[in-house]
Amino acid sequence: MRNISVRAFAYATHAVIAFVVWSTILAELFPSFKSLLAGGFGHHWIAKSDLSVIIFIVTALIFARKNDPEDIVPLVRGVLFSAVLGALLIFLFYLGHYLGLV
Amino acid sequence: MNFPLIGIHAWFGEVAALMFIWAFIEMFSGQASNIRRARFAVLCGVLFLVAAWIAGGFYYVGIYGSEVKPFIKEGPLPWAHGVAMETKEHVFIFLPFLGALAWSVMQRFGHMMEADPRARAAGLYATGAAAILAGFMALTGFLVSSGFRSALEQLVA
Question: Which one of A40, B80, B106, B151 has the fewest beta carbons within 10 angstroms of its own beta carbon?
Answer without folding.
Answer: A40
